[in-house]
């Protein structure tokens, strides 16, 4: 029996599209910031007495396709460790308000950590990152803290994350704006598949990412939050253009997403530097240097409500222990 705690991450240069659906090999590299505020703690216990895997999330039994994804990852662990026992999985998502940023990134990283440890596999962090990837792409990066690169690679051996700066020694922070915390209608898995298959702009995406990866690593080395934010904002808009230009087109934005984007642009026009990024949902994350925290926070709170805001700082990598 073992437990793991993994934090979620927000991509500054996004992953959007797979070249192998089964192994979850992405079309491109990506780069993210692991956050302190949002994490998952998961305990896995393999037990011969169980007839099937039992998965609890926040005290509720999980069924259907979500439970099957968990069993698929457990099957990989069982196969590698010659275990046949089914597992009891008890997972808790720690999010400050009514869900919404509960992410498959922290969930599958924690599951990979706890399951591999409980099964007696001695995985190093690269091995853990590769295993987490089999659950969900973004989980690949949540094994590490701080700024993390997922190197796309070509196969199971070569697709894993590497730390760029685990202990972030400059002022980058994010405010998460909780716009709509309900389950999204179009999963990222399906959404990215549609973009790859039908957007005429998708063929430009690998070029965009290749350029942004070089630029963002330079900006990180220079500890230039404004440059990092500007790259992230442009990259996010270009990712979302791949959903709008799919056939049929779709978007994760809602009206409050656009409102939050406008507030960020207005703050910038008034000399308070901050930048937005969005993932496969309507919530907006605002990137800024901590010297601007009060100015950014008070303006967002005035216009959107303080109850919808969460300040997040760079967070740590995975921790795993035996119970
Ligand atoms: C990212 N996102 O880089 C991108 C940006 C959302 C937008 O990774 O199919 O849950 O499980 O690999 O990782 C969300 O997609 O998708 C995601 P799967 P995942 O963070």
UniProtKB/TrEMBL annotation:
The keyword Glycoprotein does not apply. One of its GO terms (cellular component) is cytosol. Residues 6-161 form the Diphosphomevalonate decarboxylase-like N-terminal domain. One of its GO terms (molecular function) is diphosphomevalonate decarboxylase activity. Its EC number is 4.1.1.33. The keyword Lyase applies. It holds the Pfam family MDD_C. Keywords: ATP-binding, Lipid biosynthesis, Lipid metabolism, Lyase, Nucleotide-binding. Residues 177-302 form the Mvd1 C-terminal domain. GO terms for biological process: isopentenyl diphosphate biosynthetic process, mevalonate pathway. PANTHER family: DIPHOSPHOMEVALONATE DECARBOXYLASE (PTHR10977). Belongs to the diphosphomevalonate decarboxylase family. This is diphosphomevalonate decarboxylase. The gene is mvaD.
């Amino acid at each position: 029996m073992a437990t793991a705690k993994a934090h979620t991450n927000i991509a500054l240069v996004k992953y959007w599209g797979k070249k192998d659906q089964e192994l979850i090999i992405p079309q491109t590299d990506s780069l993210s910031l692991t956050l302190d505020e949002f994490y998952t703690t998961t305990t896995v216990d393999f037990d011969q007495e169980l007839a099937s895997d039992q998965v609890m999330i926040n005290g509720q039994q999980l069924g259907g396709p979500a439970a099957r994804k968990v069993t698929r990852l457990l099957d990989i662990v069982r196969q590698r460790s010659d275990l046949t026992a089914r597992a009891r999985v008890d997972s808790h998502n720690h999010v400050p308000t009514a869900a919404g940023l509960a992410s498959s990134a922290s969930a599958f990283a924690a599951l990979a950590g706890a399951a591999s440890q409980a099964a007696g596999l001695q995985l190093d962090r690269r091995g853990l990152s590769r295993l987490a990837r089999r659950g969900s792409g973004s989980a690949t990066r949540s094994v590490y803290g701080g700024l993390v690169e997922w190197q796309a690679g070509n196969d199971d051996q070569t697709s894993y994350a590497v730390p760029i700066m685990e202990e972030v020694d400059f002022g980058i922070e994010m405010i998460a704006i909780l716009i709509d915390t309900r389950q999204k209608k179009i999963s990222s898995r399906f959404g990215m598949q549609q973009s790859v298959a039908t957007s005429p702009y998708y063929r430009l995406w690998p070029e965009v990412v290749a350029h942004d990866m070089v630029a963002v690593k330079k900006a990180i080395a220079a500890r230039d939050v404004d440059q990092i934010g500007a790259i992230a904002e442009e990259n996010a808009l270009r990712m979302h253009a791949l959903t709008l230009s799919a056939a049929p087109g779709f978007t994760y934005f809602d009206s409050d997403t656009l409102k939050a984007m406008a507030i960020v642009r207005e703050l910038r026009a008034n000399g308070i530097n901050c930048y937005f990024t969005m993932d496969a949902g309507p919530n907006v994350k605002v990137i800024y240097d901590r010297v601007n925290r009060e100015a950014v926070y008070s303006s967002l709170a005035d216009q959107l409500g303080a109850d919808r805001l969460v300040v997040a700082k760079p967070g740590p990598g995975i921790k795993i222990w035996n119970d």
